[in-house]
Specification:
With 171 residues, the chain is mainly beta. The chain has a single domain, classed as Pnp Oxidase, Chain A, CATH 2.30.110.10. It has 3 helices and 12 strands, in the order αβββββαβαββββββ. The strands form 3 sheets. Strands 3-2-6-9-10-5-4 form a 7-stranded antiparallel beta sheet. The protein has a 3-stranded antiparallel beta sheet with strand order 1-11-12, with no helix packed on it. A two-stranded antiparallel ribbon has the order 7-8. A hairpin with a 2-residue loop joins strand 11 and strand 12. The longest helix has 8 residues.
Length: 171
């Protein structure tokens, strides 16, 4: 008996749902990107499009959705932080992904030496200055030069795969 094929195909011009599902086959970490408004208020949003770019100079990139509320601030500010979430932070990620929700209320947020809101329990925190900003279709591509990084190498990450949060399970 032949097993039914589960292969799906996307072609340019198709419904973007199938393309989103194809991208979802790549497991990613989950971050919260934070900054401050010109008035000093903290802003942040969940972003899973995050990558290292270069060690020399130290660069990273994040790609927040163009229409996300905090993206306007990220396009204007000179400094931002990328907080890499640990396995215990599913609820926090969900809260920062919603529009209009109170985001900085009850967690371990503190102000860094560069004045940025950072999560004390984050798996890693990268504090950056904006190196470049590019158009990325329905997202922006924000490249940051890393000023400071702190990390906790023994903790497990929060992952996102096929539209759901996941953890690491290695036998």
């Amino acid at each position: 008996m032949t097993k039914p094929s589960s292969t799906r195909i996307y072609r340019d011009g198709d419904d973007t749902r199938s393309l989103r599902d194809a991208f979802g086959c790549f497991a990613t970490g989950v971050t919260i990107v934070t900054a401050r408004t010109a008035e000093g208020a903290p802003v942040g949003l969940t972003v899973n499009s995050f990558s290292s770019v270069s060690l020399e100079p130290p660069l990273l990139l994040v790609c927040p959705a163009r229409d996300a509320g905090s993206t306007a601030v990220l396009k204007q500010t000179e400094r931002f932080a990328v907080n890499v979430l640990g396995s215990q932070d599913k609820a926090l990620s969900t809260r920062f992904a919603r529009k209009g929700s109170e985001r900085f209320g009850e967690d371990d947020w503190r102000t860094s030496e560069h004045g940025l809101p950072v999560l004390s329990r984050a798996l890693a925190v990268f504090e950056c200055t904006r190196e470049a900003l590019h158009d990325g279709g329905d997202h922006i591509v924000l490249i940051g030069r890393i000023l400071h990084a702190v990390y906790h190498p023994l903790d497990d990450p929060l992952l996102y795969f096929r539209g759901a949060y996941r953890g690491i399970h290695i036998d």
